[in-house]
Structures are given as C-alpha cells and as structure tokens.
Amino acid sequence: MHPRIRIVAALTLGLALHASTLQAAEFGPPALKYLTDVVHRRPRAWVYEVEALHPLLQRHGAKARREAFIRALAQETFGTEYLRHYLHEARAELPRGALSQ
C-alpha cells in the first residue's frame, strides 16, 4: 500500500474513532469504560466492534444501553454479541405496548 494511502486511511479511521468516542461519552462512564476495555481485550477486532455497536445502540433507549454496558462490565463480557444479547433481554422485559408508545 502506498504510504500516502496509509496516512489517509489512518486519518479517516482516527476521525471515525474520535466520533465514536464522543458518542460513547454521551452514553456515560460505563460506555467509555466498556469501549476502553474492548480496545485492550480485542486488539485485532475492536475497530469492527465499535462500528457494529453504533447501529445497535441507536435502536435502544438510554436506560437499556446503560444497563447493558454495566452488565457487560460486571460480567467481563466484551463484544457486540454480548451487548446485543443484554439489549435484547432488556427489550423482552418491557411491559407490553411500551415499544409502541
């Protein structure tokens, strides 16, 4: 790969990750802690994890997201597949009709 292409790719990735970090900051300290742990525990896959989290988190409310991050941290389960499971469980626990309101 040409060095200039590598530089542009690194800058683009850096901007995307910065945006993801800013968005995680909006979700609170558990999200930032979780994101930091994903980066360290999945060094080869964390970029894909962060990209996969964005659309998943957009479909759920703040309370469900926060609880999912807290649960993942407590159980030391790091990966989109775990958050998806926790968010699905939180959604299943909602009272009937709560999603349509």
Quick description:
The chain is mainly alpha-helical and 101 residues long. It has one domain (3-92). It has 5 helices and no strands.
Commentary on this structure:
This protein is mainly α. It has one domain (3-92). The chain has five helices and no strands. The chain has helices at residues 3-27, 29-41, 46-58, 62-75, 80-92. Helix 1 (3-27) runs antiparallel to helix 2 (29-41), helix 2 (29-41) packs across helix 4 (62-75) and helix 4 crosses helix 5.
Q: What labels would you give this structure?
A:
101 residues; globular; mainly alpha
How many separate helices? Answer: 5
Helix content: over 70%
Largest sheet: none
Order of helices and strands: HHHHH
Q: Low-confidence parts lasting 5 or more residues at pLDDT below 50?
A: none
Label the structural class: mainly alpha
Domain count: the total is: 1
N- and C-termini, Cα separation = 51 Å
Strand content: under 5%
Estimate the global geometry from the Cα principal axes.
Answer: globular
Give Rg in angstroms: 15 Å
Question: Count the strands?
Answer: 0
What's the overall average pLDDT, rounded? 76
- Oligomer state equals single chain
